[in-house]
UniProtKB/TrEMBL annotation:
Gene Ontology biological-process entries: DNA-templated transcription initiation
UniProt keyword annotations, A-Z: DNA-binding, Repeat, Transcription
UniProt key word Transcription: yes
Record family assignment: Belongs to the TBP family.
GO molecular function: DNA binding
UniProt xrefs under Pfam families: TBP
Domain of life assignment: Archaea
Protein name listed in UniProt: Uncharacterized protein
Organism in which the protein naturally occurs: Huberarchaeum crystalense
Coiled-coil portions: none
PANTHER family, alphabetized: TATA-BOX BINDING PROTEIN (PTHR10126)
Length: 200
């Protein structure tokens, strides 16, 4: 039985798409009553919240690049993008997707089955940041030839994995993290000086 639950939940997908034509962001920003928000002095993109799923936010740039964040599935991303394109065309912006969707970041969550002792856990591994006065969680960074990821561990046992681009890599990152915990825990358990410590 593993220390970490095998089920993971997608919390956020950050995706980019490219439209076939540039967008006049100044003109688009004037449709504030339609939900488009633009302040060129603060940010070069126009913000828009999806009409169905309010957690999904689009940022539209003059180049035609669109950033989508807040969705929990690619199905939700595609549905929201379809709605956005229809709205843009109704407003007079003749655009369509180039179908160049790319996942830029994926945030997933899981949990450790036994509540960890944070300071002991932080001392077990390299590439760890833990300062509870600044941030309540342990930040573990993994970077190798196959992937890079950031894993956050909280005292409730909750785990957040970010910086990956697909579910398989997320599962791999969490699995590799678990193996390192078990390996180091076993090493410390076999050590006379640390034999009495229990990290979970």
């Amino acid at each position: 039985m593993g220390l970490i639950n095998e089920d993971i939940n997608v919390q956020n997908i950050v995706v980019t798409e490219q439209l076939n034509n540039p967008i006049d962001v100044n003109a688009l920003g004037k449709f504030e009553k339609k939900g488009f928000k633009y302040n060129k002095e603060k940010f070069p993109g126009v913000f828009f919240h999806d009409s169905i799923d309010k957690k999904i936010t689009f940022i539209i740039f003059k180049t035609g690049k669109i950033v989508c964040t807040g969705a929990k599935s690619m199905r939700a991303v595609n549905s929201a993008l379809t709605r956005l394109i229809k709205i843009l065309n109704k407003l007079g912006f003749k655009v369509k997707q180039k179908k160049e969707l790319k996942i830029r970041n994926l945030v997933v969550t899981s949990y450790i089955k036994k509540i960890p002792r944070m300071f002991e856990l932080a001392a077990m591994l390299d590439n760890i940041e833990y300062n509870p006065e600044v941030f309540p969680g342990i930040i573990y960074r993994e970077k190798n030839k196959e992937y890079s990821a950031a894993i956050l561990i909280f005292k409730t046992g909750r785990i957040v994995c970010a910086g990956i681009k697909n579910i398989d890599i997320a599962k791999r990152a969490i699995s590799d993290f678990q193996k390192k915990i078990i390996l180091n825990k076993n090493k410390d358990t076999n050590s006379q000086s640390l034999a009495s410590q229990d990290f979970f």
